[in-house]
């Protein structure tokens, strides 16, 4: 027969074991958080880059978090090789070196008559479109952040 006390004790023990297991798995490199950053607003480019830099640092450095930056709309124009500032170039290069995936919306590229080669190094073309990519990443367990 299960009493309230034994039920509570077993539930508490399971929660503690689960939390300890999660911490151990995290320490072993298993269960790395996955995050999708959504950037569409041109006035948020530097803010979003800063958020991602802080996110990587907050998780303990590169390799401790898996991040994909999905860019579409007016924000994508800030990543053109011909228009990007030296600061954006440097910071984006640092993000790419840290393992951040850089995804450029194929629909925006087409609308702006650009090729992925017109963008800063590291971007890949997302033919299905940026919003579709974001939805797929969320379905794969990525947390969604839109700065």
Q: How many structurally independent domains?
A: 2
The DSSP helix count reads: 5
Enumerate the spans where pLDDT stays under 50 for 5 or more consecutive residues: 7-29
Per CATH, the class of the largest domain reads Alpha Beta
Largest sheet: 5 strands, parallel
Secondary-structure element pattern, one letter each: HEHEHEHEHE
CATH architecture call of the largest domain: 3-Layer(aba) Sandwich
Give the terminus-to-terminus CA distance: 52 Å
Q: Outline, from the CA principal axes?
A: globular
Mean pLDDT: 87
Number of strands: 5
* Proportion in β-strands: 15-25%
How do the strands of the widest beta sheet line up side by side? 4-3-2-1-5
Write the layout of secondary structure elements.
Layout: H1 4-27, E1 34-39, H2 45-58, E2 66-71, H3 86-97, E3 101-105, H4 106-111, E4 123-126, H5 130-139, E5 143-145
Parallel strand pairs: 1-2, 1-5, 2-3, 3-4
Helix pairs in contact: 2-3
Short description:
The protein has 147 residues and is an alpha/beta fold. The longest helix has 24 residues.
């Amino acid at each position: 027969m299960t009493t309230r006390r034994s039920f509570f004790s077993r539930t508490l023990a399971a929660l503690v074991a689960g939390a300890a297991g999660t911490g151990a798995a995290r320490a072993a490199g298993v269960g790395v958080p996955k995050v999708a950053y959504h950037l569409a607003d041109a006035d948020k480019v530097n803010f979003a880059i800063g958020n991602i830099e802080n996110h990587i640092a907050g998780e303990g450095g590169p390799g401790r978090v898996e991040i994909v930056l999905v860019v579409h709309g007016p924000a994508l124009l800030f990543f053109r090789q011909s228009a990007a500032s030296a600061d954006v170039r440097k910071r984006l290069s640092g993000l790419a070196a840290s393992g951040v995936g850089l995804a450029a919306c194929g629909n925006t590229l087409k609308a702006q008559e650009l090729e992925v080669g017109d963008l800063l190094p590291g971007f890949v073309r997302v033919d299905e479109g940026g919003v579709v990519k974001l939805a797929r990443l969320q379905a794969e367990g990525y947390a969604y952040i839109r700065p």
